[in-house]
Amino acid sequence: MTTTAINYQELAEKIKRWGQELGFSQVGISDIDLSAHEPAFLRWLEQGYHGNMDYMARHGLMRTRPDELVPGTLRVISVRLNYLPQNAQFSKILKDKNLAYISRYALGRDYHKLMRKRLQQLGQKIAQHCQSFNCRPFVDSAPVLERPLAEKAGLGWQGKHTLLLNKEAGSWFFLGELFVDIPLPVSQNDYAINASKHSDETVRSNDCGSCVACIKICPTKAIVEPYVVDARRCISYFTIESPEAIPVELRPLMGNRIYGCDDCQLICPWNKYAKLTELEDFQARENLDHVSLLSLFAWTEEYFLNKLQGSPIRRIGYQSWLRNIAVALGNAPYSEDIVTALNSKQDVANDMVKEHISWALEQQMIKRAAIAAEQQSQSANHRLTLRLIRSIEKGLPRDA
Ligand code: B12
Ligand code: SF4
Ligand code: SF4
Protein backbone atom coordinates (compact mmCIF):
# COMPACT_ATOMS: atom_id res chain seq x y z
CA MET A 1 0.00 0.00 0.00
CA THR A 2 1.29 3.42 -0.88
CA THR A 3 1.01 6.60 1.24
CA THR A 4 1.77 9.06 -1.57
CA ALA A 5 -1.04 10.83 -3.45
CA ILE A 6 -2.74 8.53 -5.92
CA ASN A 7 -2.41 9.24 -9.60
CA TYR A 8 -5.89 8.10 -10.70
CA GLN A 9 -5.08 8.40 -14.38
CA GLU A 10 -2.22 5.95 -13.98
CA LEU A 11 -4.31 3.72 -11.77
CA ALA A 12 -7.10 3.62 -14.38
CA GLU A 13 -4.60 2.46 -16.99
CA LYS A 14 -3.28 -0.20 -14.63
CA ILE A 15 -6.83 -1.38 -13.92
CA LYS A 16 -7.44 -1.90 -17.63
CA ARG A 17 -4.19 -3.85 -17.90
CA TRP A 18 -4.91 -5.97 -14.82
CA GLY A 19 -8.41 -6.65 -16.13
CA GLN A 20 -6.96 -8.00 -19.34
CA GLU A 21 -4.39 -10.06 -17.43
CA LEU A 22 -7.31 -11.58 -15.53
CA GLY A 23 -8.78 -12.66 -18.87
CA PHE A 24 -11.45 -10.01 -19.41
CA SER A 25 -11.92 -9.08 -23.05
CA GLN A 26 -12.32 -5.36 -22.27
CA VAL A 27 -12.51 -3.04 -19.27
CA GLY A 28 -14.06 0.45 -19.03
CA ILE A 29 -14.94 2.97 -16.33
CA SER A 30 -18.07 5.11 -15.99
CA ASP A 31 -19.67 7.52 -13.58
CA ILE A 32 -22.89 6.44 -11.90
CA ASP A 33 -25.41 8.82 -13.45
CA LEU A 34 -28.10 6.66 -15.10
CA SER A 35 -30.87 9.24 -14.80
CA ALA A 36 -31.36 9.25 -18.59
CA HIS A 37 -32.49 5.61 -18.27
CA GLU A 38 -35.01 6.05 -15.48
CA PRO A 39 -38.06 6.96 -17.62
CA ALA A 40 -37.47 4.04 -20.02
CA PHE A 41 -36.88 1.60 -17.16
CA LEU A 42 -40.05 2.69 -15.35
CA ARG A 43 -42.06 2.50 -18.58
CA TRP A 44 -40.80 -1.06 -19.10
CA LEU A 45 -41.98 -2.08 -15.64
CA GLU A 46 -45.33 -0.28 -16.00
CA GLN A 47 -46.02 -2.19 -19.22
CA GLY A 48 -45.45 -5.41 -17.27
CA TYR A 49 -42.71 -6.45 -19.71
CA HIS A 50 -40.79 -8.08 -16.85
CA GLY A 51 -43.52 -10.74 -16.51
CA ASN A 52 -43.00 -12.80 -13.36
CA MET A 53 -39.40 -11.61 -12.80
CA ASP A 54 -40.48 -9.84 -9.60
CA TYR A 55 -36.86 -9.06 -8.75
CA MET A 56 -36.82 -6.53 -11.62
CA ALA A 57 -39.48 -4.44 -9.87
CA ARG A 58 -38.59 -5.17 -6.25
CA HIS A 59 -35.78 -2.67 -5.82
CA GLY A 60 -37.43 0.30 -7.49
CA LEU A 61 -34.97 2.86 -8.77
CA MET A 62 -31.99 1.32 -6.95
CA ARG A 63 -31.21 -0.24 -10.34
CA THR A 64 -30.58 3.16 -11.88
CA ARG A 65 -28.82 4.56 -8.79
CA PRO A 66 -25.69 2.57 -8.02
CA ASP A 67 -24.91 4.61 -4.89
CA GLU A 68 -28.21 3.50 -3.35
CA LEU A 69 -27.20 -0.12 -3.84
CA VAL A 70 -23.68 0.44 -2.48
CA PRO A 71 -23.44 3.76 -0.60
CA GLY A 72 -20.26 5.65 -1.38
CA THR A 73 -19.95 4.34 -4.95
CA LEU A 74 -18.37 6.91 -7.26
CA ARG A 75 -17.45 4.86 -10.32
CA VAL A 76 -18.33 1.57 -11.91
CA ILE A 77 -15.66 -0.53 -13.60
CA SER A 78 -17.47 -2.57 -16.28
CA VAL A 79 -15.94 -5.62 -17.91
CA ARG A 80 -16.96 -7.87 -20.74
CA LEU A 81 -15.95 -11.46 -21.36
CA ASN A 82 -16.30 -13.23 -24.72
CA TYR A 83 -18.14 -16.55 -24.53
CA LEU A 84 -18.58 -17.78 -28.12
CA PRO A 85 -17.29 -21.38 -28.18
CA GLN A 86 -15.47 -22.94 -31.10
CA ASN A 87 -17.55 -24.66 -33.75
CA ALA A 88 -20.87 -23.21 -32.56
CA GLN A 89 -22.79 -25.12 -35.30
CA PHE A 90 -25.66 -22.64 -35.20
CA SER A 91 -27.35 -23.46 -38.48
CA LYS A 92 -26.70 -27.20 -38.31
CA ILE A 93 -28.62 -27.47 -35.04
CA LEU A 94 -31.40 -25.02 -35.85
CA LYS A 95 -32.00 -26.88 -39.12
CA ASP A 96 -32.53 -30.31 -37.57
CA LYS A 97 -35.77 -30.39 -35.57
CA ASN A 98 -34.72 -33.56 -33.78
CA LEU A 99 -31.66 -31.88 -32.24
CA ALA A 100 -31.72 -29.61 -29.18
CA TYR A 101 -30.70 -25.99 -29.58
CA ILE A 102 -29.17 -24.60 -26.39
CA SER A 103 -28.06 -20.96 -26.29
CA ARG A 104 -24.38 -20.86 -26.94
CA TYR A 105 -23.68 -18.95 -23.73
CA ALA A 106 -24.91 -21.91 -21.70
CA LEU A 107 -22.92 -24.79 -23.18
CA GLY A 108 -20.08 -24.61 -20.67
CA ARG A 109 -19.50 -23.48 -17.09
CA ASP A 110 -21.76 -20.95 -15.37
CA TYR A 111 -20.27 -17.50 -15.89
CA HIS A 112 -21.55 -15.86 -12.71
CA LYS A 113 -19.10 -17.30 -10.18
CA LEU A 114 -16.22 -17.35 -12.60
CA MET A 115 -16.52 -13.64 -13.41
CA ARG A 116 -17.26 -12.55 -9.85
CA LYS A 117 -14.09 -14.25 -8.62
CA ARG A 118 -12.01 -12.45 -11.21
CA LEU A 119 -13.65 -9.12 -10.38
CA GLN A 120 -12.80 -9.75 -6.73
CA GLN A 121 -9.19 -10.32 -7.71
CA LEU A 122 -9.24 -7.06 -9.65
CA GLY A 123 -10.54 -5.31 -6.52
CA GLN A 124 -7.74 -6.81 -4.43
CA LYS A 125 -5.13 -5.49 -6.86
CA ILE A 126 -6.64 -1.99 -6.74
CA ALA A 127 -6.75 -2.11 -2.93
CA GLN A 128 -2.99 -2.63 -2.85
CA HIS A 129 -2.59 0.78 -4.50
CA CYS A 130 -5.01 2.78 -2.35
CA GLN A 131 -5.02 3.72 1.32
CA SER A 132 -8.75 3.49 1.59
CA PHE A 133 -10.75 1.55 -0.94
CA ASN A 134 -14.09 -0.24 -0.97
CA CYS A 135 -15.55 -2.25 -3.79
CA ARG A 136 -18.33 -4.75 -4.61
CA PRO A 137 -18.37 -7.08 -7.63
CA PHE A 138 -21.59 -7.90 -9.47
CA VAL A 139 -22.42 -10.25 -12.30
CA ASP A 140 -26.13 -10.30 -12.94
CA SER A 141 -26.48 -10.81 -9.19
CA ALA A 142 -28.12 -7.61 -7.91
CA PRO A 143 -30.24 -4.69 -9.12
CA VAL A 144 -27.65 -3.35 -11.54
CA LEU A 145 -28.42 -1.93 -14.98
CA GLU A 146 -25.47 -3.68 -16.56
CA ARG A 147 -25.88 -2.76 -20.23
CA PRO A 148 -26.40 1.00 -19.79
CA LEU A 149 -23.41 1.04 -17.40
CA ALA A 150 -21.24 -0.86 -19.89
CA GLU A 151 -22.37 1.50 -22.64
CA LYS A 152 -21.33 4.48 -20.51
CA ALA A 153 -17.97 2.79 -19.85
CA GLY A 154 -17.31 2.69 -23.60
CA LEU A 155 -17.69 -1.08 -24.08
CA GLY A 156 -20.18 -0.68 -26.92
CA TRP A 157 -23.77 0.40 -27.53
CA GLN A 158 -27.15 -1.12 -26.85
CA GLY A 159 -28.50 -2.46 -30.11
CA LYS A 160 -32.16 -2.46 -31.05
CA HIS A 161 -32.35 -5.96 -29.54
CA THR A 162 -31.18 -4.25 -26.29
CA LEU A 163 -27.97 -6.29 -26.00
CA LEU A 164 -24.62 -4.57 -25.80
CA LEU A 165 -22.80 -4.61 -29.11
CA ASN A 166 -19.23 -3.79 -29.91
CA LYS A 167 -17.85 -2.90 -33.33
CA GLU A 168 -14.85 -5.19 -32.93
CA ALA A 169 -16.49 -7.96 -30.94
CA GLY A 170 -20.22 -8.24 -31.81
CA SER A 171 -22.38 -9.21 -28.84
CA TRP A 172 -21.33 -12.72 -27.72
CA PHE A 173 -20.01 -11.62 -24.35
CA PHE A 174 -21.09 -11.39 -20.71
CA LEU A 175 -20.98 -8.27 -18.58
CA GLY A 176 -19.84 -7.72 -15.00
CA GLU A 177 -19.08 -4.75 -12.76
CA LEU A 178 -16.96 -3.61 -9.85
CA PHE A 179 -18.52 -0.73 -7.90
CA VAL A 180 -15.73 1.42 -6.44
CA ASP A 181 -15.51 4.47 -4.20
CA ILE A 182 -12.52 6.20 -5.83
CA PRO A 183 -12.72 9.06 -8.37
CA LEU A 184 -11.16 7.29 -11.36
CA PRO A 185 -11.21 9.12 -14.70
CA VAL A 186 -14.07 7.79 -16.86
CA SER A 187 -13.51 6.08 -20.22
CA GLN A 188 -14.40 7.68 -23.50
CA ASN A 189 -17.94 6.83 -24.58
CA ASP A 190 -18.66 7.11 -28.30
CA TYR A 191 -22.34 6.41 -27.77
CA ALA A 192 -23.23 8.95 -25.09
CA ILE A 193 -26.97 9.35 -24.81
CA ASN A 194 -28.07 12.92 -25.43
CA ALA A 195 -30.61 12.92 -22.70
CA SER A 196 -32.96 15.53 -21.44
CA LYS A 197 -35.17 15.03 -18.43
CA HIS A 198 -38.02 14.20 -20.82
CA SER A 199 -37.50 10.75 -22.23
CA ASP A 200 -39.29 11.62 -25.49
CA GLU A 201 -36.52 14.04 -26.32
CA THR A 202 -33.79 11.52 -25.59
CA VAL A 203 -31.74 10.60 -28.62
CA ARG A 204 -29.71 7.41 -28.87
CA SER A 205 -26.59 7.49 -30.94
CA ASN A 206 -25.24 4.14 -32.09
CA ASP A 207 -24.13 2.04 -35.04
CA CYS A 208 -27.38 0.15 -35.71
CA GLY A 209 -28.29 2.76 -38.32
CA SER A 210 -31.44 1.88 -40.25
CA CYS A 211 -31.02 -1.88 -39.68
CA VAL A 212 -34.01 -3.66 -38.11
CA ALA A 213 -32.91 -7.25 -38.79
CA CYS A 214 -33.18 -8.39 -35.15
CA ILE A 215 -36.70 -7.01 -34.80
CA LYS A 216 -37.83 -8.80 -37.95
CA ILE A 217 -36.20 -12.16 -37.24
CA CYS A 218 -37.39 -12.58 -33.65
CA PRO A 219 -39.63 -15.68 -33.87
CA THR A 220 -42.03 -14.49 -31.17
CA LYS A 221 -41.98 -10.75 -31.97
CA ALA A 222 -40.58 -10.02 -28.51
CA ILE A 223 -38.72 -6.87 -29.59
CA VAL A 224 -41.86 -4.80 -29.49
CA GLU A 225 -40.12 -1.60 -30.57
CA PRO A 226 -36.47 -0.68 -31.11
CA TYR A 227 -34.60 -1.01 -27.77
CA VAL A 228 -37.56 -2.59 -25.96
CA VAL A 229 -37.98 -6.31 -25.27
CA ASP A 230 -41.22 -7.65 -23.84
CA ALA A 231 -39.65 -10.43 -21.80
CA ARG A 232 -42.97 -12.29 -21.63
CA ARG A 233 -42.68 -13.03 -25.36
CA CYS A 234 -38.95 -13.81 -25.34
CA ILE A 235 -37.96 -17.48 -25.69
CA SER A 236 -35.12 -16.83 -23.27
CA TYR A 237 -37.65 -15.78 -20.63
CA PHE A 238 -40.06 -18.63 -20.92
CA THR A 239 -37.42 -21.35 -21.29
CA ILE A 240 -35.08 -20.05 -18.54
CA GLU A 241 -36.59 -17.46 -16.24
CA SER A 242 -40.22 -18.46 -15.95
CA PRO A 243 -41.20 -21.54 -13.93
CA GLU A 244 -44.74 -21.27 -15.28
CA ALA A 245 -46.51 -22.80 -18.25
CA ILE A 246 -45.31 -21.64 -21.67
CA PRO A 247 -48.13 -19.78 -23.44
CA VAL A 248 -49.74 -22.19 -25.92
CA GLU A 249 -49.61 -19.73 -28.83
CA LEU A 250 -45.84 -19.32 -28.41
CA ARG A 251 -44.98 -23.03 -28.19
CA PRO A 252 -44.86 -23.74 -31.95
CA LEU A 253 -42.61 -20.68 -32.39
CA MET A 254 -39.99 -22.11 -30.03
CA GLY A 255 -38.96 -24.77 -32.56
CA ASN A 256 -36.12 -26.81 -31.06
CA ARG A 257 -34.82 -24.04 -28.76
CA ILE A 258 -34.88 -25.68 -25.33
CA TYR A 259 -32.75 -23.22 -23.35
CA GLY A 260 -32.58 -19.55 -24.34
CA CYS A 261 -32.47 -18.15 -27.84
CA ASP A 262 -29.77 -16.53 -29.94
CA ASP A 263 -31.74 -15.51 -33.03
CA CYS A 264 -31.54 -11.73 -32.59
CA GLN A 265 -27.77 -12.00 -32.22
CA LEU A 266 -27.34 -14.49 -35.06
CA ILE A 267 -28.92 -12.13 -37.58
CA CYS A 268 -26.95 -9.11 -36.40
CA PRO A 269 -24.35 -8.06 -38.99
CA TRP A 270 -21.94 -6.94 -36.25
CA ASN A 271 -21.46 -10.53 -35.09
CA LYS A 272 -19.30 -11.06 -38.17
CA TYR A 273 -16.64 -9.48 -36.00
CA ALA A 274 -17.26 -11.60 -32.91
CA LYS A 275 -14.22 -13.17 -31.29
CA LEU A 276 -14.14 -16.74 -30.01
CA THR A 277 -13.73 -17.16 -26.28
CA GLU A 278 -10.27 -17.92 -24.98
CA LEU A 279 -11.70 -19.77 -21.99
CA GLU A 280 -11.85 -23.53 -21.89
CA ASP A 281 -14.65 -23.12 -19.31
CA PHE A 282 -17.06 -21.86 -21.99
CA GLN A 283 -16.48 -24.72 -24.43
CA ALA A 284 -19.37 -27.17 -24.77
CA ARG A 285 -19.63 -29.94 -22.19
CA GLU A 286 -21.49 -33.23 -22.42
CA ASN A 287 -21.97 -32.72 -26.19
CA LEU A 288 -24.59 -30.10 -25.39
CA ASP A 289 -23.74 -28.38 -28.67
CA HIS A 290 -24.91 -31.35 -30.72
CA VAL A 291 -27.36 -33.65 -29.01
CA SER A 292 -30.78 -35.08 -29.81
CA LEU A 293 -33.94 -34.00 -28.02
CA LEU A 294 -34.75 -37.62 -27.29
CA SER A 295 -31.49 -38.34 -25.52
CA LEU A 296 -31.86 -35.25 -23.30
CA PHE A 297 -35.48 -36.08 -22.54
CA ALA A 298 -34.39 -39.53 -21.37
CA TRP A 299 -32.27 -38.05 -18.54
CA THR A 300 -33.50 -38.83 -15.04
CA GLU A 301 -33.54 -36.05 -12.45
CA GLU A 302 -30.47 -37.52 -10.77
CA TYR A 303 -28.60 -37.65 -14.05
CA PHE A 304 -29.66 -34.06 -14.86
CA LEU A 305 -28.35 -32.81 -11.51
CA ASN A 306 -25.09 -34.72 -11.81
CA LYS A 307 -24.30 -34.01 -15.44
CA LEU A 308 -25.06 -30.32 -15.18
CA GLN A 309 -23.08 -29.48 -12.10
CA GLY A 310 -21.48 -26.07 -12.62
CA SER A 311 -23.67 -25.40 -15.68
CA PRO A 312 -26.13 -22.48 -15.78
CA ILE A 313 -28.77 -24.88 -17.13
CA ARG A 314 -29.03 -26.65 -13.76
CA ARG A 315 -30.62 -23.49 -12.29
CA ILE A 316 -33.92 -24.02 -14.11
CA GLY A 317 -34.49 -27.38 -12.42
CA TYR A 318 -35.58 -30.72 -13.83
CA GLN A 319 -39.27 -29.93 -14.33
CA SER A 320 -38.59 -26.83 -16.47
CA TRP A 321 -36.03 -28.90 -18.37
CA LEU A 322 -38.69 -31.53 -19.17
CA ARG A 323 -41.24 -28.81 -19.98
CA ASN A 324 -38.93 -27.20 -22.57
CA ILE A 325 -37.90 -30.46 -24.23
CA ALA A 326 -41.51 -31.67 -24.32
CA VAL A 327 -42.49 -28.58 -26.32
CA ALA A 328 -39.56 -29.08 -28.72
CA LEU A 329 -40.57 -32.74 -29.17
CA GLY A 330 -44.07 -31.53 -29.99
CA ASN A 331 -42.51 -29.34 -32.67
CA ALA A 332 -40.38 -32.18 -34.10
CA PRO A 333 -41.53 -34.34 -37.04
CA TYR A 334 -43.80 -37.26 -36.14
CA SER A 335 -42.03 -40.31 -34.79
CA GLU A 336 -43.21 -43.31 -32.81
CA ASP A 337 -40.09 -42.98 -30.60
CA ILE A 338 -41.10 -39.46 -29.64
CA VAL A 339 -44.62 -40.56 -28.72
CA THR A 340 -43.21 -43.38 -26.56
CA ALA A 341 -40.72 -41.03 -24.87
CA LEU A 342 -43.40 -38.43 -24.10
CA ASN A 343 -45.67 -41.07 -22.58
CA SER A 344 -42.81 -42.48 -20.52
CA LYS A 345 -42.33 -39.20 -18.60
CA GLN A 346 -45.96 -38.81 -17.52
CA ASP A 347 -45.28 -40.34 -14.11
CA VAL A 348 -42.28 -38.12 -13.20
CA ALA A 349 -43.72 -34.86 -14.57
CA ASN A 350 -45.60 -32.41 -12.34
CA ASP A 351 -49.06 -31.20 -13.40
CA MET A 352 -47.70 -28.21 -15.31
CA VAL A 353 -45.26 -30.37 -17.30
CA LYS A 354 -47.91 -33.07 -17.86
CA GLU A 355 -50.00 -30.47 -19.65
CA HIS A 356 -47.02 -29.70 -21.95
CA ILE A 357 -46.55 -33.40 -22.61
CA SER A 358 -50.23 -33.70 -23.56
CA TRP A 359 -49.82 -30.72 -25.87
CA ALA A 360 -46.75 -32.30 -27.47
CA LEU A 361 -48.56 -35.63 -27.93
CA GLU A 362 -51.44 -33.78 -29.57
CA GLN A 363 -49.00 -32.12 -32.01
CA GLN A 364 -47.49 -35.50 -32.80
CA MET A 365 -50.97 -36.98 -33.44
CA ILE A 366 -51.86 -34.07 -35.73
CA LYS A 367 -48.69 -34.72 -37.74
CA ARG A 368 -49.33 -38.46 -37.84
CA ALA A 369 -52.85 -37.82 -39.12
CA ALA A 370 -51.45 -35.44 -41.75
CA ILE A 371 -48.92 -38.05 -42.90
CA ALA A 372 -51.67 -40.71 -43.13
CA ALA A 373 -53.92 -38.34 -45.11
CA GLU A 374 -51.05 -37.52 -47.45
CA GLN A 375 -50.28 -41.19 -47.96
CA GLN A 376 -53.95 -41.87 -48.64
CA SER A 377 -54.21 -39.11 -51.21
CA GLN A 378 -50.98 -40.27 -52.79
CA SER A 379 -52.22 -43.81 -53.06
CA ALA A 380 -55.56 -42.59 -54.49
CA ASN A 381 -53.59 -40.64 -57.08
CA HIS A 382 -51.44 -43.62 -57.76
CA ARG A 383 -54.52 -45.82 -58.32
CA LEU A 384 -55.78 -43.33 -60.90
CA THR A 385 -52.40 -43.34 -62.63
CA LEU A 386 -52.39 -47.14 -62.75
CA ARG A 387 -55.85 -47.12 -64.31
CA LEU A 388 -54.64 -44.61 -66.92
CA ILE A 389 -51.60 -46.77 -67.74
CA ARG A 390 -53.81 -49.84 -68.24
CA SER A 391 -56.12 -47.90 -70.50
CA ILE A 392 -53.20 -46.51 -72.57
CA GLU A 393 -51.72 -49.96 -73.00
CA LYS A 394 -55.05 -51.35 -74.10
CA GLY A 395 -56.50 -48.48 -76.12
CA LEU A 396 -53.36 -46.86 -77.58
CA PRO A 397 -51.01 -49.83 -78.12
CA ARG A 398 -49.06 -48.02 -80.89
CA ASP A 399 -48.30 -44.99 -78.72
CA ALA A 400 -48.04 -46.76 -75.38
C1 B12 B 1 -33.86 -9.38 -17.12
C2 B12 B 1 -32.83 -9.88 -18.10
C3 B12 B 1 -33.27 -10.61 -19.20
C4 B12 B 1 -34.75 -10.71 -19.57
C5 B12 B 1 -35.21 -9.37 -20.18
C6 B12 B 1 -34.32 -8.89 -21.33
C7 B12 B 1 -34.26 -7.40 -21.52
N1 B12 B 1 -34.00 -7.01 -22.74
O1 B12 B 1 -34.41 -6.63 -20.57
C8 B12 B 1 -34.74 -11.94 -20.53
C9 B12 B 1 -35.01 -13.20 -19.72
C10 B12 B 1 -35.75 -11.89 -21.68
C11 B12 B 1 -33.28 -11.95 -20.97
C12 B12 B 1 -32.86 -12.54 -22.14
C13 B12 B 1 -31.54 -12.56 -22.56
N2 B12 B 1 -30.46 -12.17 -21.88
CO1 B12 B 1 -30.60 -11.24 -20.19
N3 B12 B 1 -30.56 -10.20 -18.64
C14 B12 B 1 -31.46 -9.64 -17.89
C15 B12 B 1 -30.85 -8.78 -16.77
C16 B12 B 1 -30.89 -9.60 -15.47
C17 B12 B 1 -31.51 -7.42 -16.57
C18 B12 B 1 -31.78 -6.63 -17.87
C19 B12 B 1 -32.56 -5.37 -17.61
O2 B12 B 1 -32.15 -4.58 -16.80
N4 B12 B 1 -33.71 -5.20 -18.26
C20 B12 B 1 -34.54 -4.03 -18.03
C21 B12 B 1 -34.71 -3.26 -19.32
C22 B12 B 1 -35.67 -2.10 -19.11
O3 B12 B 1 -33.45 -2.75 -19.62
P1 B12 B 1 -32.97 -2.41 -21.10
O4 B12 B 1 -33.66 -3.29 -22.05
O5 B12 B 1 -31.50 -2.42 -21.08
O6 B12 B 1 -33.52 -0.94 -21.28
C23 B12 B 1 -32.75 0.15 -20.83
C24 B12 B 1 -32.06 0.90 -21.94
O7 B12 B 1 -32.14 0.23 -23.19
C25 B12 B 1 -32.71 2.21 -21.96
N5 B12 B 1 -33.73 2.45 -22.97
C26 B12 B 1 -34.72 1.69 -23.43
N6 B12 B 1 -35.41 2.35 -24.35
C27 B12 B 1 -34.82 3.55 -24.44
C28 B12 B 1 -35.10 4.60 -25.26
C29 B12 B 1 -34.30 5.73 -25.15
C30 B12 B 1 -34.59 6.84 -26.04
C31 B12 B 1 -33.22 5.78 -24.20
C32 B12 B 1 -32.37 6.92 -24.04
C33 B12 B 1 -32.97 4.72 -23.41
C34 B12 B 1 -33.76 3.61 -23.56
O8 B12 B 1 -33.34 2.39 -20.75
C35 B12 B 1 -33.75 1.14 -20.24
C36 B12 B 1 -33.65 1.26 -18.78
O9 B12 B 1 -32.36 1.55 -18.43
C37 B12 B 1 -29.37 -8.60 -17.31
C38 B12 B 1 -28.30 -8.52 -16.23
C39 B12 B 1 -28.35 -7.16 -15.54
N7 B12 B 1 -28.39 -7.18 -14.24
O10 B12 B 1 -28.37 -6.15 -16.22
C40 B12 B 1 -29.17 -9.83 -18.22
C41 B12 B 1 -28.38 -9.65 -19.54
C42 B12 B 1 -28.88 -8.42 -20.19
N8 B12 B 1 -28.77 -10.79 -20.35
C43 B12 B 1 -27.84 -11.22 -21.09
C44 B12 B 1 -28.02 -12.22 -22.08
C45 B12 B 1 -26.77 -12.85 -22.67
C46 B12 B 1 -29.31 -12.58 -22.49
C47 B12 B 1 -29.68 -13.48 -23.69
C48 B12 B 1 -28.83 -13.26 -24.93
C49 B12 B 1 -29.61 -14.95 -23.23
C50 B12 B 1 -30.00 -15.97 -24.28
N9 B12 B 1 -29.16 -16.30 -25.24
O11 B12 B 1 -31.08 -16.50 -24.23
C51 B12 B 1 -31.17 -13.07 -23.93
C52 B12 B 1 -31.29 -11.94 -24.96
C53 B12 B 1 -32.68 -11.39 -25.11
C54 B12 B 1 -32.70 -9.91 -25.46
N10 B12 B 1 -32.84 -9.57 -26.73
O12 B12 B 1 -32.59 -9.07 -24.55
C55 B12 B 1 -26.53 -10.47 -20.88
C56 B12 B 1 -26.29 -9.53 -22.06
C57 B12 B 1 -24.85 -9.37 -22.50
C58 B12 B 1 -24.77 -8.37 -23.65
N11 B12 B 1 -23.86 -8.57 -24.56
O13 B12 B 1 -25.51 -7.42 -23.70
C59 B12 B 1 -26.79 -9.74 -19.51
C60 B12 B 1 -26.16 -8.37 -19.38
C61 B12 B 1 -26.27 -10.69 -18.41
C62 B12 B 1 -24.77 -10.60 -18.23
N12 B12 B 1 -24.29 -10.29 -17.03
O14 B12 B 1 -24.00 -10.80 -19.14
N13 B12 B 1 -32.51 -11.27 -20.12
S1 SF4 C 1 -33.65 -13.93 -27.67
FE1 SF4 C 1 -34.96 -14.80 -29.32
S2 SF4 C 1 -37.05 -14.52 -28.60
FE2 SF4 C 1 -35.75 -13.19 -27.33
S3 SF4 C 1 -35.75 -11.22 -28.36
FE3 SF4 C 1 -34.00 -12.31 -29.19
S4 SF4 C 1 -34.80 -13.35 -31.02
FE4 SF4 C 1 -36.57 -12.72 -29.81
S1 SF4 D 1 -29.48 -6.61 -36.00
FE1 SF4 D 1 -29.28 -4.52 -36.76
S2 SF4 D 1 -30.70 -3.30 -35.48
FE2 SF4 D 1 -30.40 -5.26 -34.45
S3 SF4 D 1 -28.75 -4.86 -33.01
FE3 SF4 D 1 -27.78 -5.64 -34.88
S4 SF4 D 1 -27.27 -3.81 -36.08
FE4 SF4 D 1 -28.71 -3.19 -34.50
TrEMBL record:
It catalyses: epoxyqueuosine(34) in tRNA + AH2 = queuosine(34) in tRNA + A + H2O. [4Fe-4S] cluster 2 binds at C218, C234, C261, C264. One of its GO terms (cellular component) is cytoplasm. Pathway: tRNA modification; tRNA-queuosine biosynthesis. The keyword Ion transport does not apply. [4Fe-4S] cluster 1 binds at C208, C211, C214, C268. Pfam families: Fer4_16, QueG_DUF1730. Its cofactor is cob(II)alamin; [4Fe-4S] cluster. GO terms for biological process: tRNA queuosine(34) biosynthetic process. Binds 2 [4Fe-4S] clusters per monomer. Catalyzes the conversion of epoxyqueuosine (oQ) to queuosine (Q), which is a hypermodified base found in the wobble positions of tRNA(Asp), tRNA(Asn), tRNA(His) and tRNA(Tyr). Monomer. This is Epoxyqueuosine reductase. The gene is queG.
